Amino acid sequence: MNNPFQNALSQLSKATKAKQFPDSLIEGLSKPQREILVSIPVRMDDGSTRYFEGYRVQHNNVRGPYKGGIRFHPQADINEVRALAFWMTMKTAVAGIAMGGGKGGVTVDPKKLSPGELEQLSRGWVQALWRNLGPEVDVPAPDVNTTPKIMEWMSDEYEKLSGDTSRATFTGKPIEYGGSEGRTPATGLGGYYVFATLKDQAGIQDGASVAVQGMGNVGGHAATIFTENGYKVVAMSDSKGGIYKESGLDPEEVESYKKKNGSLKGFPGAKQITNAELLELPVDILIPAALENQITSDNAAKIKAKLVLELANGPTTPEADESLFGRGIPVIPDILANAGGVVVSTFEWEQNRASEHWSEIQVLEKLEKLLVEQSHNVWQRATDLNVSLRTAAFVIALERLEAAQR
Ligand code: NAD
């Protein structure tokens, strides 16, 4: 079993081999500054009370307030949330935004809750943790299975308890409730900007084929955006399995089929595949956009893609990373590839604090400019140090964290 936090530490250790950093910096980053575990009571529709385990890990705030999403998932546990919080510290540093790293979660299968139970759980998470949150302290956002509606409930609960009406404590809110234009597609779109910046260096042609694992907020938008830009999405999947069509899928058709039927089973004209098979398809670009530990030592040698764009957090284990690097397959790492979400979340936080509302064009132009610049930085550093893009991104993040700590 791959422990995501151990994987994160091994990525960190690899970066210190590419460039030396003070021991105190590395030791400080190896442990979160604070971890909070809470038990959240929910009165179920049948009258019983259930208790759900909730978390907030505040990994590091030397560069700004803790920032990171909240995950509702049956497999969410403290090791996973700790790893995700660590990656947020590195991500905000690579993106060059003045935020730190944090992450939250609840061990729950939200599909098994009624809307009322889900709202109680969301508000309960805030009731248990609100004293540790705030615009200058810790600013959560959505992650797997948490939606703009959930952010609205959480923000509303925070406002009631704290009296702070700025709405700057939660990002990823609905637009009519203080959210930012462009936040919902931001992670997928940001991934596309990063890809488009580096594709020539990576030897990818216009119109190349793409397989996308996961079709939630991130994977769903990525599939649409790649298609709109002339790429051919040949495979998509959700937690139950996927479909493959060599001549290309229409992501919007796939989404509406799933909405109607609950899964991709029986999708006309496409071959049914498993998530494991999707990863090994003969495509140009592989986009993991679901969960951690998908490309491992078991399947890395079978990956046929020419480029991996990590839109999920932690989809590639350190052993798989080595194997892909050895085979000359660039992996655009999560902390760069999916940074678009936290960047636009930070724009949302800035707008809430200044009581402003920026246009979609303003938001997207700022996002693109920032990601294009940071993508070039990472590629250049990888070339200079002759290391993987991940190790280069870590080196850049560590330099910025070191400067802030000093
Ligand atoms: P989501 O809940 O909207 O969607 C998750 C998707 O993954 C769903 O389609 C689900 O069916 C699928 N899935 C779940 N388990 C799977 C499995 N075992 N195999 C294949 N597919 C599976 O979540 P999201 O917000 O799209 O997040 C996806 C990934 O992107 C996560 O790793 C998350 O941490 C990362 N991420 C999200 C954001 C964001 O802004 N939402 C930002 C950065 C990174």
Question: How would the blueprint of this fold be written?
Answer:
Elements: H1 4-18, H2 23-29, E1 34-43, E2 49-60, E3 66-73, H3 78-95, E4 101-107, H4 115-129, E5 138-142, H5 148-162, H6 186-198, E6 209-213, H7 217-228, E7 232-238, E8 241-244, H8 251-261, E9 271-273, H9 275-279, E10 285-288, E11 307-309, H10 318-326, E12 331-332, H11 334-337, H12 340-354, H13 360-385, H14 389-405
Parallel strand pairs: 3-4, 3-5, 6-7, 6-10, 10-11, 11-12
Antiparallel strand pairs: 1-2, 2-4, 7-8, 8-9
This protein binds nicotinamide-adenine-dinucleotide.
Structure commentary:
It contains 14 helices and twelve strands. The chain is α/β, with parallel strands linked by helices. It has two domains: 138 residues, Rossmann fold (3-Layer(aba) Sandwich), CATH 3.40.50; 152 residues, NAD(P)-binding Rossmann-like Domain (Rossmann fold, 3-Layer(aba) Sandwich), CATH 3.40.50.720. β3, α3 and β4 form a beta-alpha-beta unit. Bound molecules: nicotinamide-adenine-dinucleotide.
Mean pLDDT: 97
What spatial order of strands do you see in the largest sheet?
9-8-7-6-10-11-12
Distance between the termini: 37 Å
Secondary structure tally, helices: 14
Q: Could you tell me the number of beta strands?
A: 12
Helicity level: 40-55%
Q: For the record, what CATH class of the largest domain applies?
A: Alpha Beta
Number of domains: 2
CATH topology of the largest domain: Rossmann fold
CATH superfamily of the largest domain: NAD(P)-binding Rossmann-like Domain
Poorly predicted sequence stretches spanning 5 or more consecutive residues = none
Helix/strand order, N-terminal first: HHEEEHEHEHHEHEEHEHEEHEHHHH
In percent, how much strand structure appears in the residues?
15-25%
Rg for CA atoms:
20 Å
Global shape: globular
**What small-molecule ligands were found?**
nicotinamide-adenine-dinucleotide
Structural class: alpha/beta
Largest sheet: 7 strands, mixed
Q: Which CATH architecture of the largest domain? A: 3-Layer(aba) Sandwich
